[in-house]
């Protein structure tokens, strides 16, 4: 070990020890600051509800579908045709929008010429007007933009896409975007299509100096504020160049910095030093290597549809100069009624970073954890090799990306739901950090850079876990490896502007515990085991699990069996014995019991069962007030807050039933709680977008200013818990309105947790729980059990897709024929998966009333169909409730007395 490395490690250790013994919950990890970043925007709730979700008309363009890849940055292609939230350098604080990045169309018929920007706005830029109308079909990571209603002589359609291939990390982490532009004319026409791209190279945030940076732990001595890259200035713009680019069938321009970019402090930003814009398979190409806002360089294009610039190396942007951009144009002849497709490509590349620990300054990088490089560095040492691969595999990657969208689009579910489900996965591009070594952490959003957030991960993980189990496990493994010596799971495993842990390393975010971090880690681990059958993975963490459980047991105060301490709901003070965690604790015990059964440890099984019985009895006795679970009380049951209703009170119930571990509370209690939430707070909140903490005496929400709602938890812990209890219509209504709140303002692909605003918060993928809930579905591969009880609400056949780590399927239930089938549409891996038992837990019925059906062993193989029609009456038996929300005042409260 050299001296420099030794000193750096010493600082890491010193920082950790300085925090040891810090008072519980002393640090709220910046939540309060995050809540006050966005002033409560009065009047933004309520409004239009009748959208054509798959063809949004003249839609707001704050955000758009993110295009790019996992861990490599992204750009949003917005419904106006503009590029917004450009995050090729920084996904945490992307550039809001660009006026230099756009497509432009030139047409000529005889002497009649016209040049327009294919952007919806009222401006005239570079001598070209925009358009008045657009239609947008945005389904992450694809977008389609058309221009009907503009009286254009040529009808263009832009289809944009990048790769997201389930369980194929290589093809899903390429910084490559394709734009296929279809051109159709009703008469012979000369046409030119131009693609302009602004120079963003070197535009990243960097501290002005390293003074105060010492590689210490962030959760002490003000280091978190110092490392908050949101407050750092943009680095001075690098000098860049542009020159022609050609590679096999691609021709275009490459923008580049002469040297690799050297930040003062290495972060997980992308230090992109090369960008290519190119067109595939075209011959009549012209270029405008560089132009600025005050140039009239587009005049040639406006006149003739082409540029006459010389194709030599040119300076693109002088250091610290105003913005500049490059343009690529393709000129062609259109035949009447025939379609011409021009395919453009945008790609960027950051060179691999090599840290010389012997000379690197203290604080210039995190020396104790994961690397800062990109996953594509495992395969491509330069832009050239990456583009050759991307081009030759483009069609396959596009086809395999569409494969996971198609079952959703082909389903019987409403368009708003299809749109919401597919697009909720966007966070895997906008928030996930993925290194060359395969280490993963997910940026929380609006938290100064803190990432790998276990409490939010409990709701956000389904999309990653279903489609990229390898990446999901990476983050879970880092959490296990960085476990505190006291036995608790940390809140964070890294920081976007500092570094993150790796197995065998350290994290810069040690100390700081919350009860549901520990519980959430265990629950997700067991769910992974039951859905994959990977017993070795579970056993590999068995020692860790026992340490975590010992910690949780130790947090129960004398006279109580339920742990007490801080939780995810940390922006508002909650009582010690807390309705949210009481339920999550019961689910934790269910998970621990499942572990005991899996590894054959009867002591664990018995201990879990006995503690569950005691804790369930205590939770109900101390917190249930007859209509709902009170917000909380003291550990002895005193000072119960019956006047405060909380939307997180059924979190444990939802999680346990979702995982197939049964109800943690009696179903009549669950139903009464849902009715109370609908009547007391949800129905009194516009769009049902309710504060999570509601004071009944004041008849209003009392969350901290800026915290209008926690929509993603409302979706899982109220809406989906309600759906399990039979409140199907109310659940769908809540989910629909959560989307509408964001959709109306153009925030579909940048949803915030606290109130509607321009933040990509990590928990948007919570919607990926819902396919299983709608189908009453789940799997336990080790026990060869398939759970199935689809919600059927009318006389029409339903079609619901299911996605699990190792296979996909489609459930079709036809009430007129009383037929129900499960068709296997995709199988991953060679492991044998089979089912010999079907368990039905119909919505609205207690899990104790489940039906167990022995079947002939069904082996999961692609294309096979399991026909369960003979068991229709036992499987499809939902006890759905009348909707409460539309006329909540006409519904009575439900009272449940516990003896």
UniProtKB/TrEMBL annotation:
Name under which the protein is recorded: Uncharacterized protein, contains GBA2_N and DUF608 domains
GO biological process, one term: carbohydrate metabolic process
Signal peptide stretch: none
Any single Pfam family the record assigns to this protein: DUF608
Ranges of residues in domain Glycosyl-hydrolase family 116 catalytic region: 516-678
Source taxon at top rank: Bacteria
All residue ranges annotated as the Glycosyl-hydrolase family 116 N-terminal domain in the record: 64-396
Stored InterPro entries: 6-hairpin_glycosidase_sf, 6hp_glycosidase-like_sf, GH116_catalytic, GH116_N, Non-lysos_glucosylceramidase
Annotated GO MF terms: beta-glucosidase activity
Gene3D superfamilies, per the entry: 1.50.10.10
């Amino acid at each position: 070990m050299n001296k420099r490395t030794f000193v750096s490690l010493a600082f890491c250790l010193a920082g950790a020890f300085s925090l040891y013994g810090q008072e519980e919950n002393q640090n709220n990890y910046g939540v309060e600051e995050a809540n006050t970043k966005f002033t409560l925007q009065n009047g933004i709730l309520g409004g239009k509800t009748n959208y054509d979700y798959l063809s949004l008309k003249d839609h707001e363009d704050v955000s758009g579908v993110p295009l790019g890849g996992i861990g490599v940055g992204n750009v949003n292609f917005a419904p106006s045709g503009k590029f917004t939230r450009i995050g090729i350098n920084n996904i945490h604080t992307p550039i809001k929008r660009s006026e230099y990045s756009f497509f432009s169309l030139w047409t000529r018929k005889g002497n009649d010429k016209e040049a327009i920007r294919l952007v919806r706005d009222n401006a005239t830029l570079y001598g070209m007007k925009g358009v008045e109308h657009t239609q947008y079909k945005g389904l992450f990571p694809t977008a389609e933009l058309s221009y009907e209603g503009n009286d254009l002589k040529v009808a263009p359609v832009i289809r944009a896409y990048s790769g997201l291939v389930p369980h194929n990390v290589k093809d899903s982490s390429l910084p490559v975007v394709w734009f296929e532009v279809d051109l159709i004319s009703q008469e012979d026409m000369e046409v030119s299509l131009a693609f302009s791209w602004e120079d963003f190279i070197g535009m990243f945030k960097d501290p002005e100096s390293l003074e105060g940076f010492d590689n210490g732990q962030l959760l002490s001595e003000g280091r978190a504020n110092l490392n908050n890259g949101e407050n750092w200035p943009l680095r001075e713009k690098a000098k860049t160049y542009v020159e022609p680019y050609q590679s096999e069938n691609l021709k275009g321009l490459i923008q580049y910095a002469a040297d690799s970019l050297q930040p003062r402090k290495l972060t997980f930003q992308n230090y992109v030093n090369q960008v290519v814009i190119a067109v595939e398979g075209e011959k009549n190409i012209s270029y405008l290597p560089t132009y600025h806002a005050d140039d009239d360089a587009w005049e040639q294009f406006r006149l003739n549809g082409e540029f006459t610039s010389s194709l030599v190396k040119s300076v693109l942007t002088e250091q610290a100069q105003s913005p500049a951009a490059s343009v690529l144009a393709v000129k062609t002849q259109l035949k009447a009624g025939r379609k011409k497709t021009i395919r453009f490509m945008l790609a960027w590349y950051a060179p691999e970073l090599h840290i010389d620990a012997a000379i690197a300054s203290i604080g210039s990088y995190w020396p104790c954890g994961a690397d800062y490089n990109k996953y594509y560095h495992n395969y491509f040492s330069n832009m050239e090799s990456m583009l050759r691969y991307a081009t030759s595999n483009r069609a396959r990657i596009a086809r395999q990306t569409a494969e996971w969208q198609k079952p959703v689009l082909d389903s019987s579910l409403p368009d708003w739901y299809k749109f919401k489900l597919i697009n909720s996965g966007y966070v895997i591009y906008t928030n996930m950090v993925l290194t060359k070594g395969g280490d993963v952490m997910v940026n929380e959003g609006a938290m100064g850079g803190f990432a790998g957030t276990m409490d939010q991960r409990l709701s956000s993980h389904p999309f990653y876990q279903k489609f990229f189990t390898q990446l999901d496990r990476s983050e879970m493994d880092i959490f296990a490896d960085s476990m505190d010596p006291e036995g608790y799971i940390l809140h964070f495993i890294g920081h976007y502007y500092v570094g993150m842990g790796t197995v065998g390393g350290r994290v810069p975010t040690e100390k700081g515990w919350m009860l549901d971090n520990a519980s959430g880690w265990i629950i997700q681990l067991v769910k992974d085991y039951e859905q994959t059958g990977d017993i070795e993975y579970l056993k590999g963490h068995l020692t860790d699990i026992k340490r975590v459980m010992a910690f949780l047991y130790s947090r129960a105060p004398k006279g109580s069996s339920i742990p007490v301490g801080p939780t995810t709901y940390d922006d508002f003070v909650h009582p010690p014995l807390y309705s949210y965690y009481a339920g999550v604790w019961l689910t934790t015990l269910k998970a621990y019991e499942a572990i005991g059964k899996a590894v054959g440890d009867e002591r664990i099984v018995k201990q879990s069962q006995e503690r569950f019985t005691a804790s369930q009895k205590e939770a109900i006795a101390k917190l249930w007030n007859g209509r709902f679970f009170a917000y909380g009380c003291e550990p002895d049951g005193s000072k119960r807050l019956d006047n405060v209703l909380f939307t997180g009170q059924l979190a444990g119930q939802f999680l346990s039933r979702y995982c197939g571990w049964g109800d943690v509370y009696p179903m009549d209690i669950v139903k009464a709680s849902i009715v109370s939430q609908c009547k007391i707070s949800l129905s009194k909140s516009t769009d049902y977008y309710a504060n999570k903490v509601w004071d009944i005496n004041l008849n209003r929400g009392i969350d901290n200013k800026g915290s209008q709602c926690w929509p993603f938890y409302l979706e899982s812990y109220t809406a989906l818990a309600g759906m399990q209890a039979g409140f199907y219509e109310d659940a769908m209504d809540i989910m629909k309105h959560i989307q509408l709140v964001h959709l109306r303002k153009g925030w579909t692909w940048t949803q915030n947790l606290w109130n509607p605003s321009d933040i990509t918060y990590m928990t948007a993928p919570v919607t990926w729980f819902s396919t299983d809930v709608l189908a009453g579905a789940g799997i336990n591969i080790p026990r060869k059990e398939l759970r199935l009880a689809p919600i059927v609400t009318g006389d029409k056949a339903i079609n619901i897709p299911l996605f699990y780590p190792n296979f996909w399927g489609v459930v079709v239930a036809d009430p007129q024929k009383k037929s129900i089938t499960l068709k296997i549409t995709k199988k991953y891996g060679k492991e044998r998966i089979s089912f010999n038992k079907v368990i039905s837990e119909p919505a609205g019925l207690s899990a104790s009333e489940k039906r167990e059906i022995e079947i002939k062993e069904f082996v999961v193989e692609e294309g096979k169909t399991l026909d369960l029609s003979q068991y229709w009456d036992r499987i499809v038996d939902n006890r759905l409730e009348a909707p409460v929300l539309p006329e909540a005042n006409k519904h009575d409260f439900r009272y449940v007395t516990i003896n």
